[in-house]
Amino acid sequence: MKKRNGFVSNSSTSSFCVYGWDMEYGDGKTQKEKLKELLNEDGSVLDSFNCYHCYWIGVGNQYDVETDEDGEALEEAEEPSQELMEKLDELVKVHNLPEPSFTSGTFYNG
User: Fold this and answer.
1) 66: domain range?
2) Would residue 57 count as lying in a domain?
């Protein structure tokens, strides 16, 4: 299986599991700008994810998956490691960010 963080391109089906923030429906421009600044800091644990119809910043996994004859994914993305989630939770405390949440799913990326 090919495992990638961030945007997955040139694939037929992608699976994702992200712990972080939905940037389409975030808590205003200030929070979005703060997250984007953190995303660009050297050594940050944060990554960006284009997940079908949404854009998330957080920690997680997104990768190509095989499908059965009906187009259903044969596997789902794994949750991010406990270590990464703890690092993200520490960023929440240090930078007074809103509570992160989980999103996951599988989508056709054709």
Assistant:
1) 13-108
2) yes
Q: What is the DSSP string of 34-74?
A: HHHHHHHSTT---EEEEETTEEEEEEEEEEE--B-TTS-BS
Structure token pair of residue 33: 């700008």
Q: Does residue 5 carry a pLDDT above 70?
A: no
Residue 7 within a domain: no
pTM for the model stands at 0.70
**50 exposed, middle or buried (CB, 10 Å; 0-12, 13-18, 19+)?**
middle
Other Cβ atoms closer than 10 A to 20: 26
Per-residue pLDDT tens digits for 62-94 = 777 777 777 676 777 788 889 989 988 998 898
Residue 92: helix, strand or coil by DSSP? helix
